[in-house]
Amino acid sequence: AQSVTQLDSHVSVSEGTPVLLRCNYSSSYSPSLFWYVQHPNKGLQLLLKYTSAATLVKGINGFEAEFKKSETSFHLTKPSAHMSDAAEYFCVVILRDNYGQNFVFGPGTRLSVLP
Amino acid sequence: DGGITQSPKYLFRKEGQNVTLSCEQNLNHDAMYWYRQDPGQGLRLIYYSQIVNDFQKGDIAEGYSVSREKKESFPLTVTSAQKNPTAFYLCASTGSQYSNQPQHFGDGTRLSIL
């Protein structure tokens, strides 16, 4: 079985300080992993993806994530938070079955950015 | 620009009424998905379709129905059997059955009970 755990339901940082959003997965094989951001009343926007290429993945808006197989982690980071980063963030892993592929979503982490 | 269009943005349902949410994509994607999102919660899969004229139930399909008559379109009907339909509904698509690529999302439809 595959699952995704986001260890923090809410993270609060000050503007200009680093952001760390944690994601751990369980998978029986090398997974494909993604981070999405969701602003209020909007759809999900892809931040970055890992599909078994480089383990350090750079995404949009200054975000990056590192795939660590030994720790089964895919944590999202940003060196300096901006007010516009306040949103909900979802870590996602691909699950494959006889019908194709489905996407397993973590429960989400709400990021607050304080002035 | 290619993308996914969901309409309407806001929808109200009366008791005993069926309502249909529209999802159209011009990305030439084979696979399409419907999710439900409740306040402060993650996404739950309602239905998905990997190819035209075929679809599968997700985790919470009861009270919902779908069709996939065209590649571009995957409408979701919320039937009167769905007793708690108030939620934010998101449609997504991805290239193919085993594309290993991320989903693209629409901007959602917020459904409320009158």
Structure, described:
The complex is a heterodimer of chains A (115) and B (114). Chain A is mostly beta strands and 115 residues long. Chain A has strands at residues 3-5, 10-14, 19-21, 24-26, 33-38, 44-50, 56-58, 64-68, 73-78, 87-97, 100-105, 109-114. In chain A, strands 2, 5, 6, 10, 11 and 12 form a six-stranded mixed β-sheet that branches. In chain A, strands 3-9-8-7 form a four-stranded antiparallel β-sheet, with no helix packed on it. In chain A, strands 1-4 form a two-stranded antiparallel ribbon. In chain A, a hairpin with a 5-residue loop joins strand 5 (33-38) and strand 6 (44-50). Chain A is globular and about 50 Å long. With 114 residues, chain B is an all-beta fold. Chain B is 0% helix and 49% strand. Chain B contains no helices and eleven strands. Chain B has strands at residues 4-7, 10-13, 19-25, 31-37, 43-51, 54-57, 64-66, 76-78, 87-94, 104-105, 109-113. In chain B, the strands form two sheets. In chain B, strands 2, 4, 5, 6, 9, 10 and 11 form a seven-stranded mixed β-sheet that branches. In chain B, strands 1-3-8-7 form a four-stranded antiparallel β-sheet, with no helix packed on it. The interface between A and B is medium-sized, with 24 and 29 residues.
Q: What topology emerges from the helices and strands here?
A:
The complex is a heterodimer of chains A (115) and B (114).
Chain A: E1 3-5, E2 10-14, E3 19-21, E4 24-26, E5 33-38, E6 44-50, E7 56-58, E8 64-68, E9 73-78, E10 87-97, E11 100-105, E12 109-114
Parallel strand pairs in A: 2-12
Antiparallel strand pairs in A: 1-4, 3-9, 5-6, 5-10, 7-8, 8-9, 10-11, 10-12
Chain B: E1 4-7, E2 10-13, E3 19-25, E4 31-37, E5 43-51, E6 54-57, E7 64-66, E8 76-78, E9 87-94, E10 104-105, E11 109-113
Parallel strand pairs in B: 2-11
Antiparallel strand pairs in B: 1-3, 3-8, 4-5, 4-9, 5-6, 7-8, 9-10, 9-11
